[in-house]
Amino acid sequence: MASPNVVTATPVAARAAARAGAANDEVVLRVEGLRKRYGDQEVVRGLSFAIRRGECFGLLGPNGAGKTTTLRCCLGLIDPDGGAIELVGEPVPQSARRARIRVGVVPQMDNLDPDFTVTENLQIYGRYFGIDRATLDARIPRLLDFAGLAGKRDAGLRTLSGGMKRRLTLARALINDPELLILDEPTTGLDPQARHLIWDGLRQLLGDGKTILLTTHFMDEAERLASRLAVIDHGTMIACDTPRQLIAAHVEPEVVEVYGEDAKAWAEIHGRRLSNRLEISGETAFCYTSDAKPLLSDLATRAGVRYLHRPANLEDLFIKLTGRELRD
Fold first, then answer.
1. Mean pLDDT of residues grouped by 10 in the chain (328 residues)?
2. 13: left (phi over 0), alpha (psi -120 to 50) or beta
3. Domain 12-242, classified CATH 3.40.50.300, yes or no
4. Fold classification of 252-311 (topology level)
5. Within the chain, which residue ranges are assigned CATH 3.30.70?
6. 113 burial class (0-12, 13-18, 19+ CB within 10 angstroms)?
7. pTM of the prediction?
């Protein structure tokens, strides 16, 4: 993906310094004590966070944690039952319409118009923001280059792959040059190649100083893109920090995954003794430890097991904080 910016980029160091100064002072989205209830169920319970200009802030949580409800409240699409929201300097929901003009949104599901071409989808969406034709004519080619769709400008939506449609939805969200880009699970359902293309584009946007709010179920996506992460469950924030600091604070540094026909028996007898913490899920034993050498030495003598030794990652953090049980 190419950069959608119109001006020649300044040196990376200069851009980074400028963003650092702005990020320290300016909050693009502030949420304080947010609450939302549906009937007897309170799905968001006193959630608070702030996103500074130029950062990518990730919201992680299992299904039903309250992520999408939080986003909809922040955009003024539903009214909260309590708390305060300030979006690009505007109070929400009171001035939600004025705030949304300065925000770009990539929803979970693509909502492009199948009756229009690639270019027409961008033109019509741009007119919703009151953007004049001359500005759109200048902006759309850059956005198509950014999305890798310059060769598809006159193509119908039905001829595009899923990855192309997702990239077009991202380009559409940039049509108004937004101050904040909200991405609700932007790469769900895409193959690895398409996912990496979108990640490259998002990294370019962050390099150009854009601010991003991201929800995702892909831990590698969060770790690659987010400068800070908030883990929420049952509408409550459990932890918030940089990805590396969250892992260091909550998870042992080394993990040995043990599997095979004798894995469970080995884990109960030896794994529990040699690990700081042991979890068994299906046919796999997860041994969390600050020193894997005793585990590896023992496993090297066992014929009926296989194993993988790796550093702790965000998925380990997520599982520890929210559990392994399946959520509907």
1. 47 42 74 96 96 97 91 96 97 97 93 95 95 96 94 95 93 96 90 89 93 93 95 95 96 97 93 96 95 97 94 95 77
2. alpha
3. yes
4. Alpha-Beta Plaits (3.30.70)
5. 252-311
6. exposed
7. 0.87
